[in-house]
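Bump. Still looking for Ribonuclease P protein component structure tokens.
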Amino acid sequence: MTPPEAPALAAGTLPPAASSCAGAPELQVLRKRSQFLAAARADKQGTASMLIQGRPRHDGSDHVGVGFTCSKKVGNAVARNRAKRRMREAARLSLPGMARPGWDYVLIGKPRATADRPFPALISDLRYALKTLHARA
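Sorry for the wait, here they are.
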């Protein structure tokens, strides 16, 4: 049961950022292996803290799909989960204003970098990667 002050969210969606843009596309979490594999065939942009894969979908939907992953190279389960939490929060703050409707994005954590990088730099890396991916599309 959710506390009364917490908004109820649909399964597989991320909560909106406090400063999200009106009319911004809805973020949906990628959960199926096939979605991650399709993004792996897409364009990639590396940054100091993470690797971003992005691709437009051709199914006509306007939602933005976002997935997060870290390999065992990042560390043990605690380190991988910390890195994914940081990427999730960066995506929650950055994607509503920068993501293109109908695109899927996968954020991949890097060893030591994703968990240790200052959070403002992590957000800056994500925004840079999104601008670069969209410029090439």
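The first strand starts at residue 27 and ends at 29.

Edit: fixed formatting.
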